[in-house]
Amino acid sequence: xxxxxxxxxxxxxxxxLLGCSxxxxxxxxxxxxxxxxxxxxICEIWGKPFGxxxxxxxNKAGKMKVLMVHGVGDHLxxxxxxxxxxxxxxxxLGVAAQQQKNITLSSRYDNNKNLGNLRINRLLSRDRQxxxxxxxxxxxxxxxxxxxxxxxxxxxxxxxxRAEVNxxxxxxxxxxxxxxxxxxxxxxxxxxxxxxxxxxxxxxxDWEQLPEGIPQEACSFNDDSAAINLERxxxxxxxxxxxxxxxxxxxxxxxxxxxxxxxEFRNALKQKTIPxxxxxxxxxxxxxxxKLPEISQQKADYCQATGKHFNERVLTATPIIAFSDPNDLxxxxxxxxxxxxxxxxxxxxxxxxxxxxxxxxFDAFGLGxxxxxxxxxxxxxTDDRVIALIAKGIGNPNSAKLVQERCRWTETF
Length: 413
What we know:
By secondary structure, the protein is an alpha/beta fold. The chain has two domains: about 1-35; about 40-410, no CATH class. It is built from 17 helices and 13 strands.
């Protein structure tokens, strides 16, 4: 694949072609000076205090378990490695299992279906007193076959006719654009089953009992160990773009299939608070064209202890921490009233919006300020402030110094 010249190289090349060497030197100096300026990217938080993952790492009764769910585009197992390593560093977890465990997911009703991969890594502090089990779900194998319909457009037969940058953008579009469309079709059920299987393996087993490769049977919630572990362990989801919709829909589906069975598991789930850290949040866009949930605009009835349907809730609370870069063309903040109208009341969702620049804004040599929209979409999981917020939260004594210095927090009630 060809590479494009960086902005500085382009500027210097243009200047030399014009014979303006002094002008080129001036641009170079201005560009280099710009790199040494203080990072002024915004980080604005609106919501209640939250503790992040750190407070649960010393859980003596159980484990802290985190599930990562990717968004659009083809992914391979291991896509979250850089993120998990940066998260481990922020949480001071300096020890990792030598080998990860991988489970090939399948349906309980069709063992021949490949529903993706679940990779698990065990992270510990050096004194072995704090522990995190990091689960990485790769579901894109489900949609990859259908996207082969567009493979011809990426071939040399068609791509050579495009300008270089346009070709790169078209290939990116062919990789990511179909997934939300496919999710609305027949593959949606398989993707949600993949999520359910990942969550089931999280709850049913600890590190020592986790299978590897292709298990003899798919995971089932109808097991005493699943309910027992759910009571003692702590859980969190981390999602990106379409992965956030999958996570919400996946939890609603689990609640539906458990409605009249697996009573112990369902009762244990009611007692849990499970946060979802959403990077490049797309819930408003992905709501378009969808029916309203069966139960909405009844949060007080389901989520308050005095509510008439309190015993029918799915979770005690689902805090959503939504990260959005305003220069991310596919990301949206969650507006007031959206959750009440468009999300299932039984999830008892609470929202914290985080408006954050993960892509740097720069002056395009007098043409105006701009930020790379692709970086603004995919840069969340490598941004130190995002990782610090997921690790240690905001509004508590253990919040990271970086967050305290670089983020402005407005507490809501």
